Amino acid sequence: MTDSQHTPPATIGKFNQLTVVAMLDKGAYLDGGDLGEVLLPKRDLPEACKVGDNVNVFLYIDSAERLIATTATPLAQVGEFVSLKVVQVNKIGAFLDWGLPKDLLVPFNQQHTAMEVGKYYLVRVFLDQLTNRIAASSKLDKFIDIWPAQYQQGDKVSLIIGGKTDLGYKAIVNDLHWGLLYDNEIFQHLRVGKRIPGYIKQVREDGRLDLLLTRGSKNKVNDFSAKLLAHIADRGGVTSLNDKSDPELIQRTLGVSKKTFKATVGNLLKNGKIAIVKEGIKLV
User: Fold this and answer.
1) Per the structure, how many domains does the chain have?
2) At what angle do helices 258-270 and 247-254 cross, to 10 degrees?
């Protein structure tokens, strides 16, 4: 085995680059540093794998309570939020399909509401420090940063769509903070657990975040211009959409509000990219 002092510490619940230290009929043993040697079963061995090779593997505790390596990719790693389907509920808790042979446990004390087979839930994957077992929790608030968010209006952020509220959708911002998307500013289908880029609309006085899915003001027009031009080009250079078109038709066809559509048309007209004709709008 290589000197573990020179091997970066391996982490359970994450992908690790580990070195092959022995080849056996049942697979390969990898240098897990402080975790010791870890078996990579034969079914997961990369082709022509040999001693000295570095292999990218995910580490977890299998059904036989062994630390095991796999080259399969789970739907989430420790520290990530993900929407997963419940495949079983028993006296221990709920079990989620996360893409590995051993399902992911959500103990009863980690369930925000009682989980049901067949339904999807947004959870956070975590490592139980006492047992080294990977588990999940739908009690999301305890994983959200308690400190006020330090963002500026217009900042681009990563969003994970959370639950529906009376005002719109909650979303987790950069895996750290809650924010809110308002119904009247959403022009696309959203589902819980979807990861999507977004923007900070404003940071309120109480530190809470209002969010947008597209940039506001002038940037919003510029962001949509390329999509509108492509839409017209795909239809032979002319689209029947115009300023009299029904707002729902515009939203369904282009995924934006009529206000954004009209602002973009005005900007493209000013720049000589399009012209208004009897049939609608055509490329110049």
Assistant:
1) 4
2) 80
